[in-house]
Amino acid sequence: MKAVILIGALYLALAGASGNALAGPGHDHGDEGPALVSGNGPRRLPDGSVFLPKPAQRQIGVLTQLTEAGDLPRAVTLAGRVVMDPNAGGKVQAMLAGRLEAGPQGLPAVGQTVNKGEVLAYVVPAAGQIERSNQLAQLAELQAAKGLAEKRLERLRALADTVPRKDIEAAESELASLGARASALNVGLRNRDALVAPVSGVVASSNAVAGQVVDARELVFEIVDPKRLRVEALAYDAQLAADIAGASVVVGDARVPLSFIGAARSLREQALPLTFAAEGEALSMLALGQPVEVFVHTRSTRHGVSVPAASVLKNPANQSIVWVKTAPERFEPRTVTIAPFDGANVAVTAGLDAGERVATRAATLINQIR
């Protein structure tokens, strides 16, 4: 009996020493110990920095860039849109009100390439019933008069020996005049207005359907050369036009430099239109009328650091931050003040020094580590 009591006491003592009391089935109180965290995994440190081991950096593709400070041109962001070059694009409009008919090659589709001078469609003039009846009556009168003139000319030619030559010539002239007037009126009744491509290019827009009734001056086709597009931006500061040193626009993932052509001398919607052009086929991927963001560089400069736009993120306080690599496996968030630069990069004017390494790729993934 004493041996049983000693074994029970020893069992209770060992259970108390381990700190875990065993419960019977169905009597678990849920007092599980905390999960063990590996010391070599990515984690957010108490000071806000992130510990990111080298294998994890290679796995998520972290890249860093050594920053350089310098005088950066001040940039202004303007809202713009893609427009056609007036020398490499055109509009096809109907001169007369009438019904559309397909051209020799059919009605062109959007995106189809056309050549200068190619007939795209025909417009059959629309005339009222009364007007057409009057024209037909006039044509009938001319044809009847022409028949009488032909018979009179035959009689005069038969009497050529006794009739003066001037009478025969007058009859011939009258017959020719009646024939020309009848032909002109007949052609007018059957004539069609040909819609011709003014330039070589691509059909940007088409409002043509076979049998469609159009009004005079109505836009039917719009043709543009995609290799010679331009960008038009609106500046609400008229003095900006005299301080432009360069400009750029982002197309896809690439930055396309623009050359400044000129500024208008009249306001449009309280803004001054500015026109820019690009070299080669840099803007061929854009569509006519597509809105774009134009980054205009001025001649004045400011001191700062240029970093990729993808490096700038937001913290929970909605502040702009970048992740700076302070150690081989440690990144610290740095609150910065930014300004627009060229679309692909931004200018950091405060909060970042030259010579620091900034995460340029996978910065979003670093920001998500908790």
Could you give a short description of this structure?
The chain is an alpha+beta fold. The chain is 23% helix and 38% strand.
Task: Please explain how this structure is put together.
By secondary structure, the protein is an alpha+beta fold. It folds into 3 domains: 50-75 and 302-367, conserved putative lor/sdh protein from methanococcus maripaludis s2 fold, CATH 2.40.420; 76-85 and 226-299, Beta Barrel (Elongation Factor Tu (Ef-tu), domain 3), CATH 2.40.30; 89-224, RNA polymerase II/Efflux pump adaptor protein, barrel-sandwich hybrid domain (OB fold (Dihydrolipoamide Acetyltransferase, E2P)), CATH 2.40.50. It contains 5 helices and 23 strands. It has helices spanning 2-18, 54-60, 129-158, 165-190, 363-367, and strands at 43-44, 50-51, 63-66, 69-84, 89-93, 98-102, 113-114, 119-125, 193-196, 201-206, 213-214, 219-224, 229-235, 244-251, 254-263, 272-277, 291-308, 313-314, 320-327, 330-335, 337-340, 345-350, 357-361. The strands form 4 sheets. Strands 1, 2, 3, 18, 19, 20 and 23 form a 7-stranded antiparallel beta sheet that branches. A 6-stranded antiparallel beta barrel has the order 4-13-16-15-14-17. It has a 4-stranded antiparallel beta sheet with strand order 5-12-10-7, with no helix packed on it. Helix 3 (129-158) packs antiparallel against helix 4. It is rod-shaped, with a radius of gyration of 42 Å. Residues 1-38 have low confidence and may be disordered. Residues 305-361 form the CzcB-like C-terminal circularly permuted SH3-like domain. Residues 25-47 are annotated as: Disordered. GO terms for molecular function: transition metal ion binding. Keywords: Signal, Transport. Residues 1-23 form the signal peptide.
